[in-house]
Design a protein that fits this description.
The protein has about 180 residues and is mostly helical. It folds into two domains: about 45-130; about 140-179, no CATH class. About 70% of the residues lie in helices and about 5% in strands. The protein has helices at about 1-5, 10-40, 50-65, 70-95, 100-125, 150-175; strands spanning about 140, 145-150. Strands 1-2 form a two-stranded antiparallel ribbon. A hairpin with a 2-residue loop joins strand 1 and strand 2 (about 145-150).
Length: about 180
Amino acid sequence: MSGLVLGAISSDAWIETIFSGIALGAKYALVALGFVVVFKATGVINFAQASLVLVGGYLCWNFAATWGWNFYLALLASMVGGALLGLLLEVVILRRMSGEAPFTLIMVTIGILFVIDNLVTAIWGAEGRDLPDPWGLRTYRFGKVDIAVADVWTIGITVLVLAAFFAMFRLTTLGLAMP
């Protein structure tokens, strides 16, 4: 039965789906890189990191959709807002936990995750919000295959960021850069 369903999908659709999957994987790679950077800097896996991204996303939506800011200005402001919230949490909560067992720190970051998630729900509600797409729904067309511009940018930026961090980590390992 599954062979019949798969046979109905064109090779063009397969290529488009594979490319979209690679772009989604690139997004996951950036999330994973965030965990690696935080772990290398602190020695703790910070489970609240995802909630800080959530706050940044809602701030960006708020700046762009509610206040009418340009998308890129809203993105920059939301990044600053998320970074300030992270710094506040580090100074007020996590710094005081210095020297505690790693399990304790992990439990604290999970607690922070739940608090932030519930605050976001209390402020913006439980329904999702859609940000305007700065690239529109434009695509590149290769024969019969349509590839989203956003997917191309996602993959390209991810490759650059991962290459830069790989080089930095490699230089640090070799003792050629500051740890």
